[in-house]
Fold:
Amino acid sequence: MGLNDFTKIPNGVNGIEDRMGIAWERGVYRAKIDPMKFVSITSSMAAKIFNIYPRKGRIAIGSDADVAIDYNVYEGQVIHGIAETTISRGKVVWTKNQLQTTPGSGKFIPLLPFSPIAYASHEQRAQVMIVCKIPVDGDYHKPSF
Structure:
């Protein structure tokens, strides 16, 4: 549905929690990218875009150490590298299909707007797109290509 007509695409799809496993399968397992590139694309770069790196998107001393390891709901599809455990701020919060959190253990992280990693290229693109007027001899009625 929606393959040839995007207006037929349903409003959303379940399974967003499984997209990391699908991305691993299509990228790393099929040797199109290495595990380090996978982490960069799915975690580090996302955190940089949201302007919360290195607090998020990195496993290191001083970072929150949020790691998602989950299972797959796509019955019958073989996926390698599927998450089974989630670690938040250094503590296991989901494992063996059991949630292990206490109410109020989450933490709000305010985000600053206009991350340089996302907007630097936008600014450069804007500079390139500045219209340059070139005088034209005669009447201009149609493109010259």
